[in-house]
UniProtKB/TrEMBL annotation, chains A, B:
Residues 4-72 form the HTH gntR-type domain. Keywords: DNA-binding, Transcription, Transcription regulation. It comes from the Bacteria. One of its GO terms (biological process) is negative regulation of DNA-templated transcription. This is GntR family phosphonate transport system transcriptional regulator. SMART domains: HTH_GNTR (SM00345), UTRA (SM00866). The keyword Transcription regulation applies. Transmembrane segments: none annotated. InterPro entries: Bact_HTH_transcr_reg (IPR050679), Chorismate_lyase_/UTRA_dom_sf (IPR028978), CP_lyase_PhnF (IPR012702), Tscrpt_reg_HTH_GntR (IPR000524), UTRA (IPR011663), WH-like_DNA-bd_sf (IPR036388), WH_DNA-bd_sf (IPR036390). One of its GO terms (molecular function) is DNA binding. It comes from Sagittula marina. The keyword Ribosomal protein does not apply. Signal peptide: none annotated.
Length: 235, 235
């Protein structure tokens, strides 16, 4: 259309450059002056185009440093079956996991209630970090009812994933009974682990996984880097 | 138990005071000095108890202003049927809605694709704010395929809710086809509308509602105040 504003053409050209990988996530875009010259427009027009791309989440600006291609967030399905490794592979990402620490201890009354175990029963707690293509994606705390899952700590230590370890501990299959999602800001500690800045937005989920009989096998809290993930729910 | 640390008793007393409504959401708690005197402990013990309640999300501290009872977040189910009014009523909250602005215009190519309408077809866009007990809960943009929903703007203007208006426009029932959730920081504009501070954490959802035949009837973007809502998914 002849009355399409000029800035939309610049935005479209930049969108195509990003889609075709000419600028990859994290790359700095040319300066406003360079873009203005290249497209034969004024800087106001360039700024309008960049604003539109920022609004779309394709581009991020850093004060004084210019405009950068935003990292494409990973789509992460939250449905009846939530499997980290499968989810990442399906999104075209290489999954990774670091175990930060583990402990075996007596459950608090709240933990016992959530996991439906006797007060005073033991739990296995694993603190970890999930990665996508080597970049930190999430920090998590997983709580397992230890007496219900003999051999679980050893099976998890093999590093073949949660599904594999649960199977080794006698859980043939498991499903997600509930997920709760909220938005919080990164604390100093989480910022270091997730490699985001303090105060960055995080998606916090708390979730319960149960076996085929509905018995809890894992309760978890996860903090996802907000700009690296989109939780998706499809029917 | 005799070896329970002293701070847990203080935390338990404060938790009970909050649960019983002696301190309501938003109320300022007594100062550290007052709590120390009341319980016959030192301020270090009081501070430990308050830290635990902050960690649990029950209490918030504001630098220089003291400790306040945190607003209890509203549980907001995101399932196959997402109904704002029903969701709020079920959470024991009084639902409210402000329409900030509306427009009728030609769909962009992206909007036409999402709503499965012809390029150039008209859409009705409603910008609004949702309230829980009079407090802003969310800001939203709703996009409706106008030609598919004759009379919708007038029906929405009656203020009897989206479900009612869609019914008046011929949609007997509708379900949520997909929801995408991310975490973002409040911009200056959103901070004003939501009455949060700039940079506060927001839950952003993008969602598609379809009629019983799977035809899109509404596409929406919503920004929820992160500390006032928990999205819940149950199986």
């Amino acid at each position: 259309m002849s009355n399409t504003p000029l800035w939309t053409a610049i935005a479209r050209a930049l969108r195509a450059d990003i889609a075709e990988g000419r600028y990859a996530p994290g790359d700095k875009l040319p300066t406003e002056a360079q873009l203005a010259e290249r497209h034969g427009v004024n800087r106001h027009t360039v700024r309008h185009a960049l604003s539109a791309l920022v609004e779309e989440g394709l581009v991020r600006t850093r004060r004084g440093a210019g405009a950068f291609v935003a990292a494409r967030p990973t789509d992460y399905p939250i449905g009846k079956r939530v499997r980290f490794t499968e989810n990442l592979r399906r999104a075209g990402r290489m999954p990774g996991r670091d175990v930060l620490s583990t402990e075996i201890r007596v459950a608090t009354p709240e933990e016992a209630a959530v996991l439906d175990i006797a007060p005073g029963a033991r739990i296995f707690v694993s603190h970890g970090r999930s990665l996508a293509d080597g970049q930190p994606l999430a920090m998590s705390e997983s709580y397992y009812p230890l007496d219900r899952l003999p051999g679980l700590p050893e099976a998890l230590a093999e590093g073949r994933g949660v599904t594999h370890a649960l199977k080794a501990a006698g859980v043939r299959d498991y499903t997600r009974a509930s997920t709760r999602v909220s938005a919080v800001l990164a604390t100093a500690t989480k910022a270091v682990v997730l490699q985001v800045r303090e105060g960055a937005p995080l998606l916090k989920t708390t979730s319960l996984n149960v076996d085929l009989g509905g018995v809890p096998v894992e309760f978890g809290r996860t903090w996802f880097a907000g700009d690296r993930i989109t939780l998706t729910l499809e029917d």
